[in-house]
Design goal:
The protein is an alpha+beta fold. It has a single domain, classed as Nuclear Transport Factor 2, Chain: A (Roll), CATH 3.10.450. Helix content is 28%, strand content 27%. Strands 1-2-3-4 form a four-stranded antiparallel β-sheet. The longest helix is centred in the N-terminal third of the chain and has 13 residues, at 36-48. It is globular, with a radius of gyration of 15 Å. The two termini are 21 Å apart. Bound molecules: zinc ion. Zinc ion is lined by residues 9, 11, 14, 21-22, 41, 45.
Amino acid sequence: MAAIKKNLCHCGLTGRDYRSCCGLYHTGVKLTDKSPLEVLMTRYSAFCESNGEYLLKTWHPDFRPDTTAKKFSREIKNGGKWVKLKVYGVLVNPERTEAMIRYEVSYRDSTGIVRSMCVSEFVFEDGRWFYTDEAENTDMSTLPPELDSADTVRAELDMITDGSKQ
Ligand SMILES: [Zn+2]
């Protein structure tokens, strides 16, 4: 993993390198306590790093798969290579207890680059955001407009980076 040192973090969202972006969460220095976007970006990076332990930790216990961190990490390592995350919109309820994020991930497998549009759901519990599940519907004609709004993504990113500029 040494090759990523001076490059942008896998998530590509904050303009920082891995160590000062998602690495801070993976090592437990920062918690996903500000925004559901923290969970999404750090989980994406955890897939890139084959970090099954972090993925299980940020997965709400009611939805978490019944596997071990070791097994999960190995599965990820043997899967496709994650190449890109693009976030389209973040919808958070006014109480900031529930959220949805619409995004696209690209990964490379034996057939080439595969792109997948997703909508993930998150909850805030015990002072932290958790990933719960995938929503089945990713169709923008029936989803709230916030899920296709760069402004919502910027607003959440501001919350994450505010006051901790390296
Ligand atoms: Zn990152």
